[in-house]
Amino acid sequence: MYMSWKKWEHLLPELSNVRAQLEATLRLKSGSYTSIMGANAFDEDKMYPAIVVLLIARMFGHTTRSMRYLASVVQCIHVATEIHRTIPDERAGTIRDGQTIPFAALVGDLLYARFFALLCEGEILSCLYPLSQSICAMHEGAMIRKELVETGYAQENHTEAMRTLEGTSLVVTACRLAGQAGNASFEESQALEQFGRAVGMLGAQRLTSLSTSQAAHWLAQGLDAIEQLPQGAANDACRLLLNNLGARWRSETPRSAVVVADVACVPCTSKWVV
Fold first, then answer.
1. How many CA atoms lie within 13 A of 238 on its CB side?
2. Three-state DSSP state, 132
3. Tens digit of pLDDT for each residue in 217-230?
4. Structural domains present in the chain
5. Collapsing DSSP states into helix, strand and coil, what is residue 51?
């Protein structure tokens, strides 16, 4: 069962900043963020990129202004890409001059533009290159999905490439950047990337189309990764996120699962600056 956004904001109060950024970006005459994105727009299976950044920041005691901006940046990229996936495939017809641009394309482009603005506002332009590489990888994966997977021509190596590129690239990069900011060791960085791959595979279930055994594999990979990371409330919350994202493939909650009541609100070591 998913945990509500209010409960995640209780565990990580700074998530309210990410929510505010998204709501401010899509405060349009045509509607609010939730009216455009749906009532479940802030569910954890939609917001996991921002959640992992802030959990890692807490885990390594680096709860700074730049990390709050990084969380907002990766969430904008994630949402923009999700929106662009809803645009109909134009190959069935011909695009003509003067044809109306789909509303989804405009909203996605707005969020991509906001991602650049947030990088500047948060003074984290050093993150631009790795994040741009992630965007390229995600779209390369999307092309494989469109050209091969959805048309039935994909072999197993194509499906795996699609899952890795489209499903995990952004989250792995976000975990790496958050770990670097917190001075994670080489071994910890490797574990963070493994954790990011697991979260990406489980979170992007609609794209990755994992079997029950594959989902169990990635859940185990993620849980193994966080065992190698600093222990505490943030680590427990990472375990909670993994279990929740993987719950749809399990008939019962494993004995190692963390329940919400067992996870304390992680004390913030520095004040967020807007």
1. 32
2. helix
3. 999 999 999 999 99
4. 11-86+103-262 (1.10.600.10)
5. helix
